[in-house]
Specification:
Elements (H helix, E strand, L loop, with lengths): L1 E6 L16 E5 L5 E5 L7 E6 L7 E9 L11 E6 L7 E2 L6 E2 L9 E3 L2 E4 L6 E8 L2 E9 L11 E6 L2 E7 L6 E7 L4 E7 L10 E2 L4 E5 L4 E6 L1 E3 L6 E2 L4 E5 L6 E6 L5 E2 L12 E3 L5 E9 L2 E9 L20 E8 L2 E7 L14 E7 L4 E4 L1 E2 L2 E2 L11 E4 L4 E6 L7 E6 L5 E7 L3 E10 L1
Parallel strand pairs: 7-37
Antiparallel strand pairs: 1-4, 2-3, 5-6, 5-38, 6-8, 9-10, 10-11, 11-12, 13-14, 14-15, 15-16, 17-20, 18-19, 19-22, 20-21, 22-23, 24-26, 25-26, 26-27, 28-29, 29-30, 30-31, 32-33, 34-35, 35-36, 36-37
């Protein structure tokens, strides 16, 4: 709640010849009492907004690891989750007989908000609302598909309010984009349909999932997609991705613009189910991670759609000193963005398991980027790509991020966004590959 405090400021002088009168300003409070203030003590009158501190609900961290190799991109690998109340201690987290293996029934690629996870499970026939409680995944509610069907892991999503979840992907033939609106409280299907978009002439199909984001200031959905020929790694893609602007009530496509850069959005095959690639700043400018093929490899870009506009700003790139692909972004406020990216270098490799990935903080105000360090040295490269390996806790303004270094067990570090200090948190027992940190309400 925001409250206004009235501050009175004025100057009053009254001359009446040989005599003078003194005036008081009297303020009547909401409880009926009055507060007189002599006029000669008043300098200004203004309203000052007094924001009450935000109270965050109790929360915890869910850690996800894999066994044998890194996960992501539908890899067939054992995936284990475990809840932790804190990651700040120096404890070693072991997953032997602790936590739950989830990959038999559920995917690591998921939507999460508040206390719950939302996804299309391995069965591929329904939407489910899940809660990870007492280190067990429990089904809260389920909703079977009706008109539209979706594949596990292969869809994008956006929240248009706290209770309305929009799911979107290309259909089975890849020649149309289908959407479904869900009521998150009971998983009821509110509405579903097909976007009024057609595959561009000369192309065969749409991208598998694309990226979907919602901008509150003008109540618009933004769908980032491209057209292609063929499938998988051999597919030919459009040089410039599209920005479709959608009315969230009617789901009508109002504009279909093309990015001014030769670029592809990050995570377009799996939406933002594994990693976060979009965010909005305080002014409600919308940002999206992307990359372009250049001489150095896949060069990362942080692109922006300015508030009130509907296509990528051709004069802006917020990811300076790029040396490879930009993978994940998290906005920390005050112009700071926490990024996970890959250093494209033949000696390091560019595979999921390559030790070529690292964390940095971008300052949008100064257009600078600083790599994460600990104890005076940069934190070594990490393996693992397609996953959100960091969680921002706004209650203490700290980022908790994990690395899989080549010569040590996985380690969680803690970045204080206020002071810039980096500390060590928990580590993960040897034999596991660190994948994800997610912050959820208790």
């Amino acid at each position: 709640m925001k409250r206004f405090i009235l501050t009175i400021v004025a100057t009053m002088t009254l001359c009446l010849g040989v005599s003078a009168q003194t005036y008081n300003m009297v303020i009547t409070k909401t409880d009926g009492t009055t507060l007189p203030i002599p006029a000669d003590e008043i300098r200004n009158v203004e309203f000052v907004l007094n924001e009450e501190p935000v109270v965050y609900p109790p929360h915890h961290f869910d850690l996800t690891v894999t066994v044998g190799k890194q996960g992501g991109m539908g890899r067939d690998v054992t995936t284990i989750m475990q809840s932790r109340g804190t990651l700040a201690s120096g404890a070693v987290v072991d997953f032997k007989n602790a936590g739950a293996e989830i990959n038999a029934d559920y995917t690591m690629e998921t939507v999460f908000k508040g206390k719950y996870y939302y996804q299309v499970p391995v069965s591929g026939d329904r939407f489910v609302k899940l809660q990870f409680v007492n280190n067990r995944m429990q089904v809260v509610q389920a909703q079977r598909f009706m008109e539209n069907t979706f594949k596990p892991r292969q869809y994008c999503h956006a929240w248009t309010d706290d209770n309305t979840l929009v799911i979107m992907a290309s259909n089975g033939d890849g020649n149309a984009i289908v959407w479904t609106k869900l009521n998150a409280s009971d998983m009821r299907i509110i509405a579903e349909g097909t976007l009024n978009l057609s595959v561009a002439p000369g192309w065969e199909t749409f991208t598998t999932s694309g990226i979907l984001s919602y901008r509150k200031s003008d109540n618009k959905l933004f769908y980032f997609y491209y057209n292609k020929k063929g499938s998988g790694r051999t597919a030919t893609k459009e040089d410039k991705f599209h920005v479709a602007v959608i009315n969230p009530q009617s789901m009508a496509v109002e504009q279909d613009n093309q990015c001014p850069f030769v670029a592809e959005t990050a995570g377009s095959a799996y939406g933002e189910l594994l990693q976060q690639t979009t965010f909005a700043d305080e002014a409600d400018n919308l940002y999206i991670a992307a990359f372009s093929d250049t001489a150095i490899g896949e060069e990362g870009k942080l692109l922006r759609i300015n508030k009130g506009e509907y296509n990528i700003d051709p004069n802006y790139n917020g990811f300076p000193q790029s040396d490879g692909k930009l993978l994940t972004t998290q906005y920390l406020g005050n112009g700071k963005v926490f990024c996970y990216s890959r250093h494209d270098d033949k000696a390091l490799g560019t595979g999921i398991d390559s030790y070529a990935h690292y964390y940095s903080v971008v300052d949008l105000r100064t257009n600078t980027r600083t790599r994460m360090s600990y104890g005076g040295s940069v934190i070594p490269y990490s393996s693992g790509r397609f996953s959100q390996r960091s969680a921002y806790d706004p209650s203490d303004k700290k980022v908790y991020f994990g690395v899989n270094t080549e010569n040590a067990q996985p380690q969680v570090y803690i970045y204080d966004s206020t002071t810039g200090a980096v500390a060590k948190g928990v580590s993960v027992a040897e034999g596991y590959y660190f994948e994800q940190i997610r912050l959820l309400e208790d």
